[in-house]
Amino acid sequence: MFGGLQIGFNDVMQILILYIGIYALIRFVRGTRNAQVLLGFCVLVVSLLLFTYLFRFDVLARVVYFLLIYLALSMVVVFQQEIRRMLALVGGQRLFGRQYVLREPSAPEKLCQAVAYLAQARIGALVAVERGISLCSYEDSGVKLNALVSHELLVSVFTPPLPLHDGGIILRDGRIAAAHCLFPVSNQAELATSGMRHRAAVGLSEETDAVVVVVSEETGKISVAHNGRLHRYSDEKVEKVLLRWLKKAMPHETRGPLTLTDWLMTRVAKMMKARWGVGKETP
């Protein structure tokens, strides 16, 4: 009780839900091209509300109220790509018995070795590892293979002028599902000078939770796209970093079905650790 104000369990839960929602929204749009738009929208809303409240402009407050409704609807149009990706992420969670089965336990190591060879030979490559969100719609644009991951196959696919060297490869459950696939191209301003492979890798990572590996045929450098961000690597330890990415995307162990409570608790624990550095670390 604070000055006669009683705070019950429902109040605490509402505050916690609002905090988690706002924090998750900020983390989700951070680094995207529309982050500044969201910041400007929030500043405008807070300024208008404070102005009408401090000076008690009742008529103006009603006008601002209706304007905010239309502004909120316009935000749906501005953030349609982010909203679509967020809904896809929520729908792609394995909450009802879906299990990830890595049918080829050695796939991460084989893929890492093949990518390192392609980088050394300066052969361009684009490999997407499917995770929670299905890549079947992108798989339909290519040639279905359903083949084992091998050094020879990956090198032969990406070596020009063979017909499958353009486009990307999709990996599912540790196997090559398809090749010559078309991925969406990102429109981020900072990628204006990047090649088509890098923009396609970021574009796919913006719409899905896939881990996308890119090899530049001009420089031979290896990059990894995830969550709409491109991580470029050029040091001698790139193979170790790449292997960690691939093992994260293709875990060896299989996990049983998660309940909704388990999933929520895991997400809250990760958020608390990222924000305050407390709590048990979860994989």
Number of domains: 3
Strand content: 5-15%
Instruction: Record the strand order, biggest sheet.
Output: 2-4-3-1-5-6-7
CATH architecture of the largest domain: 3-Layer(aba) Sandwich
Helix share of residues? 40-55%
What is CATH's topology name of the largest domain? YojJ-like (1
Shape: elongated
The first-level CATH class name of the largest domain: Alpha Beta
What is the string of helix and strand elements? HHHHHEHEHEEHEEEHH
CATH superfamily of the largest domain: DNA integrity scanning protein, DisA, N-terminal domain
Q: Over all CA atoms, what is the radius of gyration?
A: 23 Å
How many angstroms separate the termini?
39 Å
Number of strands: 7
Structural class: alpha+beta
Structural summary, described in words:
The protein has helices at 9-29, 35-54, 58-78, 80-91, 107-120, 136-139, 151-158, 196-207, 238-249, 260-276, and strands at 125-129, 143-148, 168-172, 175-181, 211-215, 222-226, 229-233. By secondary structure, it is α+β, with helices and mostly antiparallel strands. The protein folds into 3 domains: 9-91, no CATH class; 107-249, YojJ-like (1 (3-Layer(aba) Sandwich), CATH 3.40.1700.10; 256-283, no CATH class. It has a 7-stranded mixed beta sheet with strand order 2-4-3-1-5-6-7, with helices on both faces. A hairpin with a 2-residue loop joins strand 3 (168-172) and strand 4. Helix 2 (35-54) packs antiparallel against helix 3, helix 5 crosses helix 7 (151-158) and helix 5 (107-120) runs antiparallel to helix 9. The protein is elongated and about 75 Å long. The two termini are 39 Å apart.
